[in-house]
Amino acid sequence: ARADAVAVICQGLQQDLVARGTSPDKIVVSPNGVDLHLFGNPPAPDPEFRRTLGLEGAEVVGFIGSFYDYVRLDDLIAAMPALVARRPAAQLLLVGGGPMEEALKAQAAASPAAERIRFVGRVPHQEVERYYALVDVLAYPRKKMRLTELVTPLKPLEAMAQLKLVAASDVGGHRELIEDGVTGTLFHPGDPQAIADALAELFDQQG
After folding, report:
1. Are 85 and 53 spatial neighbours (Cβ–Cβ below 8 Å)?
2. CB neighbours of 109 closer than 8 A, spacing ≥ 6?
3. 21 falls in which pLDDT band (50, 70, 90)?
4. Model confidence over 106-136: pLDDT tens digits?
5. How many CB atoms lie within 10 A of CB 86?
6. How does DSSP assign the chain, residue by residue?
7. What does the pLDDT read at residue 38?
8. What span, in angstroms and rounded, lies between the C-alpha atoms of 39 and 166?
9. How far apart are CA 140 and CA 145, in angstroms?
């Protein structure tokens, strides 16, 4: 309230500040973005790297990022049996780590689709594009909460810069980046079946 000007990264934060009494005239939206020098020239998939990861012939759903509770990778793992039932070649590639890593690994090991779920851990930043190149659809199943409703994430923008299909939960931060059916697919948050259906439909459209 005392600042002469306020910069925010998205419209969700702008609207929240206005609702709390900040004058809209002094708020500037400076949106999240991606450095296209780093992400704007996607490499071709490396066949040997694909073979090493056991992804030959697979339809790959991927997540590359941090494993926090609000990201809800547990819902993505829970969606895998239903996805595999519709798309038998589907596999899930999880790149990264974080507080939920051990719980997610235990959940994956107990899943009927355990053989279709792969954790590769954290990777050096310069290696990230090699993993993006192997993924067909990037999935972002964030839970519905104040943070995800107000704030736009960077990872979907990275995926778009890599020319990848994007599927994400229907929360405010995602809606600001993704127009459903145009620049990506949105699914109901907290619903593994909805995730499976959205991913299967994207693969169906690819043939």
Report:
1. no
2. none
3. very high
4. 999 999 999 999 999 999 988 999 999 999 9
5. 14
6. ---S-EEESSHHHHHHHHHTT--GGGEEE------HHHHSSPPPP-HHHHHHTT-TT-EEEEEEEE--GGG-HHHHHHHHHHHHHH-TTEEEEEEEE-TTHHHHHHHHHHSTTGGGEEEEE---GGGHHHHHTT-SEEEE----SHHHHH---SHHHHHHHTT-EEEEES-HHHHTT--BTTTBEEE-TT-HHHHHHHHHHHHHHH-
7. 78
8. 15
9. 14
Q: How far is CA 71 from each of CA 15, 30, 142, rounded to the nearest angstrom?
A: 23, 24, 4
One-letter amino acid for residue 94 of the chain: L
Determine the Cα–Cα distance for residues 106 and 97; give it in Å rounded to an integer. 14
Q: What's the start-to-end Cα distance of the chain, in Å?
A: 53
Strands 6-8 and 27-29: parallel
Give the pair of three-digit tokens for residue 133.
């190149």
∠ Cα 159 160 161 (to 5°): 90
